[in-house]
Amino acid sequence: GAPARLGRHVSSVDEAAAALRAGQLVAFPTETVYGLGAHAMDAAAVASVFTTKGRPRSDPLIVHVACAEDAEALVELDERGMALMRRLAAAFWPGPLTLVAPACAALPSAVTAGSGFVGVRIPAHARALDLLRAAAVPVAAPSANRFGHVSPTRPEHVMDDLGAHPILVLSPDERADNASAPPCCEVGIESTVIKLDTAASQLVLLRRGGVPESELERWLDAEPTGFTLRRQRTHTDTAAAVAGESAAATGGEAADQAPPPHGATDGGDEGGGTVAPGMLLTHYSPDLPAYLVAGARGAPGAPSAPRGATATAFTTSSAVVLDFGGRLARLKGAAHAYRDLSPLGDAAEAATRVFEALRWSEEQAAGGGRVVLLPNLTATEKRSAGATARSAERVPALADRLFRAASGQTARLSADDADVVVDAPLVERRQGSEHE
């Protein structure tokens, strides 16, 4: 049978704070997603985060604090670096921006994944700040879900994934159980992560998230810091490049959704997988196979699906479709289930809904859903008529989450939209391109 539920909902900040100080794990809401918190200076508590989530020790944890002074105490920067950190903190905290810098010696190595660097931020959520102030300790917290699974934006999402463990789940407000409440994480996707590289006078963008890179660029343009923004090349970029090569060869649409930001250059691989979390190609993934819909209907890159084929083909009637701006609306009647993250094509609205919608897609398996189809967004999407400039700036981070939810895998619709053909896995396509 199902494992016993050892997790418990709590509404008392004081109870949750006392548990953190005692080395227990507490899931708490932030403006991005629910975090699974541990006392960052308690090595045993930090270790239990990894075992509870099934998270590899090579994936570091972000430390959450209540004030900028607490963040400064966790890092070791020279005078110039500390001055920059203070200016960034004044501009973007509390908020969904994580700053990565050399870690102080007192921080357990498990927090930094042995990299010597730590990410810190102040969340912009009243309950999170109340908890951090009451606990009066730095709190290391990744998302409160099974490793690699869809991030949680409600307390019940946390319980669904981790309820078999003896954790506390803090409610979004004073009520103990907010199952009927709207999602409390208004940003809806994880924080943007940037590394302060004082030697190179660069801010290195390691992960797209709640603060758009265009907003960082505007800030740098307006602030005489002497620093520039550079984008770190990640697994997503490599996979997207392969997808783009494949699309170019077939005449289909390129899937390159993560070009370097304006004024930036692709970096090497320095610290990419160990300095920041959330950088694996497969991440935020539903338990059903998920694919980005690539290629136009009936285009050269969208061959008819062989009926009766296994493993590489599905009928559209077994597909759960998550749409954006109505681009897959024609499948609404044919698909097993359909939901548009934002009919107006508003990326900010879609980001708030995307993780909950991915969890909803999993639930459709009970009625016959076999596969999830996702819109194949690019970082350079043209702004839709219903979207604001602010929304358009959030497309790259949304595209990143959808790309990783599908592990970069694409599928194409047959000319009559009745079938879905899965493209070759990215690894096979990369191996093929290397031998050509």
Describe the protein:
This protein has 436 residues and is an alpha/beta fold. It is 31% helix and 17% strand. It has 14 helices and 18 strands. A hairpin with a 5-residue loop joins strand 17 and strand 18. The protein starts with 7 loop residues before the first strand and ends with a helix. The C terminus is likely disordered.
Which term fits the overall shape? globular
Strand content: 15-25%
Strand order of the largest sheet: 1-8-2-3-7-4-6-5-9-10-11
The total count of helices amounts to 14
- Classify the secondary structure makeup into a structural class: alpha/beta
**Cα distance, first to last residue?**
51 Å
- Could you tell me the radius of gyration in angstroms? 21 Å
Helicity range:
25-40%
Number of strands: 18
